């Protein structure tokens, strides 16, 4: 075990359990087991070395006496240790909520407590696509319906809902439709999701793509993450199974493959072609993986891209589907940013596949596709509700039945999140009472995202050594940062990756929290960071410009 | 592949994707890929043999012509098949939503459509603990707060909330406290759960047990199922890892162990000691498993029991903790039914452990315990909201940090479900405006459960060959049924387990849906069924009595 605490002999048989502060932000408590009301301490693990400090909230006078008397010499002896738990869990990496985010939260708390010693007056959380943590207001229609679903007794006074709270009639009507199907949002639904909601999703897909969709191929999920986990759990059959994953990527994919002890087969996106897919890179890595004995079964595409912000062209999508058809790869299309597109138009993998099946008879018939969507992104931004779905296309029905069995073990996705999926795919339409406000709110969010994306992009244009692709979609920019040799040396001296070093200094100087490119994977000898463009205002872009120029001067 | 469809030669290159009706109730669609708008069929897999029937909702005249012309000779050739997907998923069994439940749903639909040919006029879903699917009304205080959390704009007119909708002031106040912490229920929270909610849970545990609890040891979850999955994922390190699981059990445990390719080490509960734990049975099976090379790491206890309804005594709990201490087993205490106790009082594993640590210095110090709770059961009954938590006691902080990393990959549990956990553990107290109604609703539900449990129990007493332990807790009774030899032969002739045969006949005759004991595991040569006592009224118990006496007469 990596940590040992020594206690005086009278306590030797009594291990401590300890509060540990992790970079992840997890806090775990510690109480002496014999006298839990009289003995408590916190141990902070920094760089593996325990530090003990008194926990004022739990300690009595007696405890303090105890604490000061004891020497830390006892040994913890847990049944489960880092050395014997599931090694796949240990191997998994997930850095989105890492050290820099934790430090940013500490700064936020200090500012809230009136600390004037920091060189900034606000913390900007640009590290995570969490719109409602920042200024994004929920869309009124959605939340009005959800409030009635949570308390249907409100429906007994529709007059007051209308006059005192401005609830339009279509809010009331929609609530009744949903309740007629789910009965209560407190009851388990069908494990694939409530039938009426899957019907709505199927209609949405049909309208989006111009090709039919069947409610029976749809699985409602607790956010897209849970859908990805389900799919990879079914697809991967052990250590030789491999899945092609774009680099840079959202680390959910590599983490889940680690948990399954399966192989991540990376393929680099082409930064200089606006982060598009590079067919040669895919084929080359596929061949290498096959030669190494990996049974490559699937390819993940994130479109629009996370962290790249890229929106794939019809040609790019075709080339992926071509490889999938030729190489017998299941396509996992992560399309959670499908409405976050600024230039051009979103094309779904399903639509492109159906087009190609019509255009080139035979060739694409065997392609299996799973495409994912979510209420967390887009103009909905309802991450905390954990709603989403995936559609299966071309799957063997027996495999789909296994997917059903798998999801049924967890009973059903959150029902209120399912209802939100329904509202997302079936929003108010022209002529309905909620339509005007809905359009206004929707467009307001979309315009805000676009203008902030452009402001950031323009700021990056001015910055020495920074290259950024034009914003196309999603909620992110992922600029390259070319740092001076001295900065890279200074980072190495601190035992840090150079992008991490840069991002930490950015946070310390400006209060702006972004994620180093190494958290997503990047081409060798390149450095990046990912920033969202969700935070209110655009002037914080200038904070980055100022910091960058000072940083470059310092390490010139 | 188990299924092959043959098509006429002009369609040979075009595999079908098919709607498959599974006993699970999953429906998967089927469209011919070349002409998705013109071609559709449904294939029903019964006993592995495909039957094709027209799908009236999707078919055009053209399609029908196509369908009748074709012969089914083409071969589906999917990349993923039953033969190459994750074998652990394939091996997992989860029967709670099985064939009998599907048939009951079909009967419900027929009755709703006016079918008069059935020998009953309502279907009673006694197969699943889903209170709000039946008559249980949500508790007003909970849903009032949730409605405001979903639409905080309602807070702008508190006067109308009070006068037009009867919202008490404490509902408004509580909403504000929760919103101050989570900001928006649409934002991701901390991956362990929102801080203010973990604080409330810790206070609840302290008050329940008289021993301290630390918010930093608590992990909010999407229902207890997700907590169990997390814990088993971390604990099990491969095929030699084993977990002791009570028999009969809730099949989540065996299914999750299958998914992890770990060993379920069963131990029989002692039916004749009110389904208590049998120390000798645990020790015997533990020894056998060890001798067979299994590294037994943990023991699961479900208290109050599912499906048994038993409530463990202080002595039973002590004996489990003793074995855990001696044999170095992590204890997983599934305590989701902790408020569903009719006789005696619920004792938590945490409380008992702390008592024993005080009473017998040294012996119990190394016990690691994870205890789970949920909003799905109790008088809350909010299954669809997927809320719950687990508390870690005595875990190595480094292992707890790995659990944190694991849960952070899925970002956070549903935030509205987290808020419901807060309301469950911190309900209105005496003197607060919502208190009287809360008590009335809470007690009404509790009394209803008790009286229905007793009515069922009394009915079982009258039934020949049926033995049932006195109701103690949870939402279930799990009677033994001693069936005549002729019934067992008749079941065998239909290739069915005898308990399944009995439950199917019960459904066909009465519309009452229960789950055969074989779905939970039972002692060899015994037969049981599990029934909830959630359905409204008590007269349906008489339907069972009548059926049983006719069944016994028929097979005498």
Automatic annotation (TrEMBL), chains A, B:
Q: Which InterPro entries match?
A: ALAT1/2-like, Aminotransferase_I/II_large, PyrdxlP-dep_Trfase, PyrdxlP-dep_Trfase_major, PyrdxlP-dep_Trfase_small
The UniProt entry, under Pfam families, shows: Aminotran_1_2
Query: Which CDD domains would you find in this protein's record?
Result: AAT_like
Q: Which UniProt keywords apply?
A: Aminotransferase, Pyridoxal phosphate, Transferase
Q: Aminotransferase class I/classII large domain: which residues?
A: 168-538
Keyword Transferase included in the entry's annotation: yes
Q: Which GO terms describe its molecular function?
A: pyridoxal phosphate binding; transaminase activity
Kindly state a single biological-process term from the GO annotations of this entry.
L-alanine catabolic process
Record carries keyword Cell division: no
Which cofactor names does the annotation list? pyridoxal 5'-phosphate
Q: How does it assemble?
A: Homodimer.
Q: Which family does it belong to?
A: Belongs to the class-I pyridoxal-phosphate-dependent aminotransferase family. Alanine aminotransferase subfamily.
Cite the PANTHER family for this sequence: ALANINE AMINOTRANSFERASE, ALANINE TRANSAMINASE
Q: What is this protein called?
A: Glutamate pyruvate transaminase
In the record, what lineage is assigned to the organism producing the protein?
A: Eukaryota, Fungi, Dikarya, Ascomycota, Pezizomycotina
């Amino acid at each position: 075990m990596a940590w040992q605490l020594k206690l005086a002999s009278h306590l030797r048989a009594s291990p401590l359990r300890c509060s540990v502060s992790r970079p992840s932000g997890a806090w775990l408590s510690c109480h002496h087991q014999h006298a839990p009301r009289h003995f408590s301490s916190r141990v902070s693990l920094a760089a593996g070395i325990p530090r003990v400090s008194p926990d004022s909230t739990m300690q009595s006078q007696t405890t303090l006496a105890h604490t000061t008397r004891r020497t830390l010499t006892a040994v913890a002896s847990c049944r489960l240790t880092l050395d014997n738990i599931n090694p796949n869990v240990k191997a998994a990496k997930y850095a989105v909520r890492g050290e820099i985010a934790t430090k940013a939260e500490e700064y936020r708390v200090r500012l809230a407590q009136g600390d004037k010693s920091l060189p900034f007056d606000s913390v900007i959380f640009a590290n995570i696509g969490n719109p409602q943590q920042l200024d994004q207001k929920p869309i009124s229609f959605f939340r009005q319906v959800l409030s009635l679903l949570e308390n249907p007794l409100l429906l007994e006074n529709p007059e007051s809902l209308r006059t005192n709270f401005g609830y339009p009639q279509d809010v009331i009507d929609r609530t009744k439709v949903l309740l007629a199907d789910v009965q209560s949002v407190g009851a388990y639904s069908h494990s694939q999701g409530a039938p009426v909601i899957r019907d709505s999703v199927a209609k949405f897909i049909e309208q989006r793509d111009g090709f039919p969709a069947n409610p029976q191929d749809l699985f409602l999920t607790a956010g897209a993450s849970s859908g990805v986990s389900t799919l990879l759990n079914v697809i991967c059959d052990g250590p030789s199974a491999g899945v092609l994953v774009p680099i840079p990527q959202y680390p959910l994919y590599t983490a889940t493959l680690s948990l399954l002890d399966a192989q991540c087969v990376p393929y680099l996106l082409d930064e200089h072609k606006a982060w598009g897919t590079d067919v040669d890179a895919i084929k080359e890595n596929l061949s290498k993986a096959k030669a190494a004995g990996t049974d490559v079964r699937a390819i993940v595409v994130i479109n629009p891209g996370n962290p790249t912000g890229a929106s794939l062209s019809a040609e790019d999508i075709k080339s992926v589907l071509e490889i999938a058809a030729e190489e017998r790869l299941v396509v996992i299309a992560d399309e959670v940013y499908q409405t976050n597109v600024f230039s051009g138009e979103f094309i779904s993998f399903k639509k492109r596949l159906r087009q190609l099946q019509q255009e080139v008879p035979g060739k694409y018939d065997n392609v299996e596709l799973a495409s994912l969507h979510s209420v967390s992104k887009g103009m909905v931004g309802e991450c905390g509700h954990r709603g989403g779905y995936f559609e299966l296309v071309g799957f063997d029905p027996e495999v789909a039945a296994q997917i059903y069995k798998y999801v049924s073990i967890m009973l059903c996705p959150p029902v209120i999140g399912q209802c939100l999926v329904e509202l997302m795919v079936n929003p108010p339409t022209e002529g309905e009472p909620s339509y005007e406000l809905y359009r206004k709110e929707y467009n307001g969010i979309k315009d805000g995202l676009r203008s902030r994306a452009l402001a950031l992009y323009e700021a990056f244009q001015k910055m020495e050594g920074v290259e950024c692709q034009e914003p196309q979609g999603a909620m992110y920019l992922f600029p390259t940062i070319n740092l001076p040799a001295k900065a890279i040396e200074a980072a190495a001296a601190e035992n840090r990756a150079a992008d991490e070093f840069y991002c930490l200094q950015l946070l310390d100087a400006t209060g702006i929290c972004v994620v180093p490119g190494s958290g997503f994977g990047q081409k060798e000898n390149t450095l990046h960071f990912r920033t969202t463009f969700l935070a209110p205002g655009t002037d914080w872009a200038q904070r980055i410009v100022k910091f960058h120029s000072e940083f470059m001067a310092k390490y010139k």
